[in-house]
Prior knowledge:
By secondary structure, this protein is α/β, with parallel strands linked by helices. It has helices at 109-118, 136-141, 154-166, 181-190, 216-229, 249-259; strands at 3-4, 9-14, 19-25, 28-33, 36-41, 58-62, 70-74, 83-87, 90-94, 127-130, 147-151, 174-178, 197-200, 205-207, 213-215, 237-242, 266-275, 283-293. Helix content is 21%, strand content 33%. The longest helix is centred in the last third of the chain and has 14 residues, at 216-229. The two termini are 16 Å apart.
Amino acid sequence: MATLAEQPLILAGKGWSDYGLVDSGHGRKLERYGPRRFIRPEPQAMWSPRMVDWQADGEFVPGSDEEGGGRWQFERAVPPEGWPLAWNDVRFTAQCTPFRHLGFFPDMAPVWSWMRGQLAGKTDAQTLNLFGYTGVGSLALSACGPVTHVDASKKSVAQARENAALSGMEDRPIRWLIDDAAKFTAREVRREKRYDGIILDPPKFGRGPNGETWRIEEHLAPLVADCRRLLDADSRFLFLTVYAVRMSSLAIAGLLAELFGDLPGTIEHGDLAVREDGEDGRLLPTAIFARWSNPANGHS
């Protein structure tokens, strides 16, 4: 049965040529996105910045309410249609969105590498990306076989298709689906589908394409239970990330331990983090995660 590793891990990413965490502190972070720099809110940056003066092309100023809101303030002209960036062989468009993000989540870079490692040597792996956003993770996984990409946002799926074309991967076997993640997964269970790997990156709150309501505290456990039914002893992984909630990584690992107890493998949990640029770069936590992997298949 799957073994729960009680000691938490830190899965830390570091910058690459097209992205980096330049500095952080006093509830904000300064990042580079290709040739441009931006300041965004970051409540977990409780320390002081290392740099005295932050020069940036723009800053996202949050609204006064706790649930979000806010707007971008620009010091220099920034193309509203975005600009191209790359991670390994995947190309995508960075863009200042109304939700403070820039079209991808850079802290997921070590997750993309880890998933590729779990599928090493396979070219026919069937993987499922739930809440797939703009498709960078799906494009990374497509090197290992067919991918089913699911997101409730028509705009996000359209951007994912554009990123596939930008990467020269429009002919990869990827299904781009505008659907409610929970409803789609339940249908896959009824269809008795099977996957080699699943990644899910759910929001704290969201709505499906037909107005379905998603609340992570209520709906995460049933969704993960359905994901478990799509995996078997020959599957390689499930990776779950959770953002901006009052929840421990040990809690979501406990959920996986209950549901994956009959499968071989290991359940691990901890923090996702990004390391600041430079030799003395600090680790900025961004999310919690829990993952199941199957070392019986020759991967760790």
